[in-house]
Each structure stands twice: as structure tokens, then as C-alpha cells.
Design a protein that fits this description.
- With 193 residues, the chain is mainly α.
- The protein has one domain.
- The chain is built from ten helices and no strands.
- The longest helix is centred in the middle third of the chain and has 43 residues.
- The two termini are 35 Å apart.
Length: 193
Amino acid sequence: SSLVMSPSISIAPYSGGILDFSPQSFAAWKLQFENHDSSIGFSRYYLDSAYVPPTLKRDAYAKGKEALDYDRMMNPDTYSLDNYEAAGLAARKVIVAKAESDTLRTATTETQEEVHSKARANAVQYLLSSFAPSVRTVWDSYTSPSLLWTAILERYEVHNNVNDPTTLIAMINELKYSSVLALTLFLPHWPAW
């Protein structure tokens, strides 16, 4: 799963059978795709809209510690405890601890968000790489791996007898913008007021 974590690694495209608009291609494609995607660590992104890899927080925290070390080196006055007397030293320690905490939290959060965003984008790109070009153009505006997976299953398992492109696009848009899916995707990320 280091492939999923590293934002610098590009994802190799899917190499199995390609999904096209014919309902007959879906069963073989799904079996092959699920075998491939689970081996590279993307399957959880398709099944759970709130999925965050277990190692992500730990890895982001390690990067945050590196950022804190760098900030200490570049801004020594911010973290210095030198030249403070007993009375002033206690207050200075509080200020330094807050600066360290703020720097660490900010760097960790930014790293986690960046890596998670890239991993989700990689999961979407991997899924799109398994589609025939005609199918890919219909679905390529999805940014959520789980919504894209849900839409594909909806199209091929629930509405597998619909082959009119106009009807398909209308169904895709209805699914894509339905309020239930929007709440499922965004509600866990909305701030609590």
C-alpha cells in the first residue's frame, strides 16, 4: 500500500479486460478488476467514501515532525529558551510549546490532506483506466472513487438493459447529483457548528 501513500508515484493503468457499454462485458470486468484493485490497495476507496488508510496519519505525523525540525532550524528565535530568567522561562516555555504544536498540527494536516487527495485521485484514475474510451468520457468527471464505483454498479447491475446513451447520461447525472449521495459523501467532512 505504499503505492497508495506516495504522491510522487504514478499509477500503472489497469491491465485486465476493459469495460465497455455492453452489459455482457461487466461480469468478467468486475471480477478481474476487483482482483487487480485489491492487490494494489484501492478497493477500500471504492467501498467506503470516508476511507482513510490506517498508515496515513502516522506518515503525515512523521512529515509534520520533519517540518517542525526544519522550522526550528530556520526560525531559531521562535523556539529559543535562552536568556530567560526563572519567572520569564515558564511563560516562554508555554509560548514555544504552542508554536511547536501549531507548526506540527498545520504541517501534519496539510500533508494528510494532500496525500489523501492524491490517493483518491489515483483510485479514480485507476478505475477510469479500466474503461473503454467511450465509457471513460461519460464517467471522467467523477472525483470520488466511491461515487464512481456506486455509479458503475448502478448502471451495470441495476439498469443493465438500458443502452441508449441519452438515457444513460441522464441516469448518470441523476445519480451523480442525488442529494442522498451528496450527503453520504460530504456530511462526514462538514464542520460541526
